[in-house]
């Protein structure tokens, strides 16, 4: 089976064989390295010096009269070895004026390395040879660029008018005659031209066996930080030309743009369909209503519960978050989450539906958030619209309980704002005592309860500008170790003993007894919570 090749075989180089067909080479003689006549030539250079290591870049055809070595066989051999080392394409020598013959050791070395040596037995115009070959190379290169630009223009027209990647593949086939295949994710390969199953299997057999008669290339299509698709191109018996390789690269770029456009449109559509998610997060939907809505957006695999991530922005500036959400969708889906997004003023809710084991949800979510933050910190658009806090709510295994995850995510943000934590990301499950403090504050006069335990210490510090509250906190944190407490407070033990005596008078000698100590530690945290809340309110009022 042989696939037809179409288009023009253009490249930005010639082979030595092709150059030998030009008029100035009619009477030349190839005396060595015939197997190297397929070497590519990208430039022709006249060279008469014998030290050339720094002068060549590779793929040059060298013209010489031999003036540099004359009849010295060792100098001629050295010159040849330098050409081979510099990956020159071949050597053309004009016999007569400066050298009359080529030494046998030079011919043997050239044959050993498949390096062509071509002789002119009469005087030839080197200037006209270089002009002729360079003009041909430049014209071919210009034509290749022109054809490539025309092909790119055709691709751009297709991107504006079609929604089927198969038409882009067909365009590549029509322009090159190459056999083309496209694989998106783990789906079956789409082929161009259309072919029966037998031919498809034959191509796949060639690819899997890496058959020597098949010239095959695979071009990954990168999208949103991952390999989204693979473009396969194959030719039998003929290697791909430089133009064809560049054409495949342009096609891969066009396919990436096509897929990105599709994903962008899908994301915009999702934004328009968030009304039901708002009701869901408000606890207004039954389980059956949730399942009906979920069937349209996530029906490919079973859902094993989920969690809500609440993201709060520092500024109210409007910006297009669609591309931003595309990146996040890619990140979360790689860790086994299906992402739903709902926006509310300065808040963006990420509803993460778990498609893998429940026991690993947090580890996978932390991996996703770590990747997100790394990409976020390097993105200028993100820096201009900075995130202030990210709160992760409780994990819910039942979909009709997801509104509780949303409520706890919001509470996590609220506690973060009051405590002014340095880190951006916090899990509700990690707040521990602060969750109890927040709950108590909602139902009781928290300040009254705190003062019941700590007012004597607070009043003493305010009256005498003392540091009993700080000493109490560190003493409890050190489990009553006087040595460690003095070290952390940077005071001598005698000073610490005096402060502990004062605390015993104010709180009672039993303040280190287990139950009372636990209550005092809790009240210190509550006191700090109230202090930060008061400070946040003052900053808000003062603008």
TrEMBL record:
Residues 468-524 form the PucR C-terminal helix-turn-helix domain. This is PucR family transcriptional regulator. Residues 18-137 form the Purine catabolism PurC-like domain. Pfam families: HTH_30, PucR. Gene3D superfamilies: PucR C-terminal helix-turn-helix domain (1.10.10.2840). InterPro entries: CdaR-like_regulators, PucR_C-HTH_dom, PucR_C-HTH_sf, PucR_dom. It comes from the Bacteria.
């Amino acid at each position: 089976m042989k696939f037809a090749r179409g288009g023009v075989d253009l490249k930005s180089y010639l082979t030595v064989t092709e150059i030998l067909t030009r008029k100035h080479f009619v009477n030349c003689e190839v005396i060595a390295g015939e197997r190297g006549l397929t070497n590519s030539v990208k430039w022709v250079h006249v060279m008469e010096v014998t030290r050339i290591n720094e002068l060549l870049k590779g793929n040059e055809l060298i013209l010489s009269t031999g003036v540099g070595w004359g009849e010295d066989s060792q100098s001629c051999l050295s010159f040849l070895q330098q050409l081979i080392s510099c990956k020159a394409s071949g050597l053309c020598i004009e016999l007569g004026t400066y050298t009359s013959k080529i030494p046998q050791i030079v011919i043997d070395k050239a044959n050993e390395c498949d390096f062509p040596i071509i002789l002119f037995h009469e005087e030839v115009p080197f200037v006209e040879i270089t002009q002729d070959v360079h003009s041909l190379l430049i014209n071919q290169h210009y034509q290749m660029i022109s054809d490539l630009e025309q092909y790119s223009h055709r691709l751009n027209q297709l991107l504006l008018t079609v929604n089927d990647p198969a038409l882009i593949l067909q365009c590549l086939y029509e322009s090159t005659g190459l056999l083309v295949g496209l694989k998106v994710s783990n789906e079956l390969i789409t082929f161009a031209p259309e072919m029966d199953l037998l031919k498809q299997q034959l191509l796949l057999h060639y690819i899997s066996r890496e058959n020597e008669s098949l010239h095959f290339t695979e071009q990954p299509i990168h999208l949103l930080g991952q390999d989204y698709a693979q473009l396969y191109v194959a030719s039998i018996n003929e290697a791909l030309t430089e133009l064809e390789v560049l054409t495949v690269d342009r096609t891969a770029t066009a396919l990436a743009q096509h897929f990105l456009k599709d994903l962008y449109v899908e994301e915009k559509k999702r934004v328009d369909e968030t009304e039901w998610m708002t009701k869901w997060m408000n606890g207004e939907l039954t389980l059956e209503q949730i399942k009906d809505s979920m069937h349209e957006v996530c029906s490919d695999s079973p859902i094993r519960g989920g969690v809500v991530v609440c993201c709060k922005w520092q500024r109210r500036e409007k910006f297009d978050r669609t591309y931003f959400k595309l990146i996040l969708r890619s990140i979360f889906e790689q860790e086994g989450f299906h992402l739903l997004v709902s926006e509310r003023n300065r808040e963006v809710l990420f509803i993460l539906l778990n498609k893998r084991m429940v026991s690993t949800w947090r580890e996978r979510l932390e991996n996703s958030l770590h990747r997100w933050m790394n990409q976020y910190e390097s993105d200028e658009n993100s820096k201009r619209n900075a995130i202030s806090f990210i709160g992760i709510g409780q994990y819910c295994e039942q979909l009709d309980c997801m509104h509780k995850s949303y409520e706890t995510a919001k509470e996590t943000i609220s506690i973060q704002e009051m405590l002014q934590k340095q880190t951006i990301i916090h899990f509700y499950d990690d707040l521990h005592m602060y969750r109890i403090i927040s709950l108590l504050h909602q139902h009781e006069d928290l300040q009254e309860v705190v003062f019941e335990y700590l007012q004597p210490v607070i009043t003493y510090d305010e009256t005498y500008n003392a540091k009993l509250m700080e000493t109490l906190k560190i003493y409890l944190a050190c489990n009553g170790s006087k040595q460690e407490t003095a070290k952390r407070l940077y005071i001598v033990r005698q000073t610490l003993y005096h402060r502990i005596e004062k605390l015993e008078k104010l709180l009672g000698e039993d303040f280190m007894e287990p139950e009372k100590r636990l209550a005092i530690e809790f009240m210190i945290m509550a006191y700090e919570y109230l202090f930060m809340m008061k400070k946040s309110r003052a900053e808000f009022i003062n603008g």
